[in-house]
Amino acid sequence: MLSENSNTRVFIGIGTNVGDRSNYIDRALDELRLEDQIWIEAVSSIYETVPVGLQDQPNFLNGIIRIKTAVHPLNLLEILKRIEVQVGRQYRKRWGPREIDLDILIYGDLVLDHPLLRIPHPEMLNRQFVLQPLVEIQPDLIHPSCNQTISQIVCHMATEIETVSREKKNSDSRQ
Length: 175
Known about the structure:
Number of helices: 4
Distance between the termini: 28 Å
CATH topology: Alpha-Beta Plaits
Largest sheet: 6 strands, antiparallel
Low-confidence stretches: none
Mean pLDDT: 87
Shape: globular
Helix content: 25-40%
């Protein structure tokens, strides 16, 4: 059961592959910083990666945001979807191009299977562009379903992230 007063560590995936990608990431981070009860603790490097799923689209910029929040997961999902729209997301086909994408990956040790939200994110263990930045900012993070650290999970994977480039983002949080 979630306590409304406790701050939970949450990991959010951020990605973009349309238009001014760095600007979309910066704007999403700015909007997230303005939210009450959400505190950004860290932002991973931003990795330029090839698309997964639908291949015929531009490369993505992907990273991870670590926050602390007392916001309930479904309410956090609503906030992230609102920020996507504010930043300029246009909803297209699944796995298609996007201006910005914000996904809840892990919410503390919560395991949730809700029609609107599954936590941990069901595809995260299949995506090096999620795991590599997670290892960067929280190598000892324990995946709630696997009961292994992200570092252990990555060590058992045979492939490396197909990275075109990497850029470090400023993770300064409002106090």
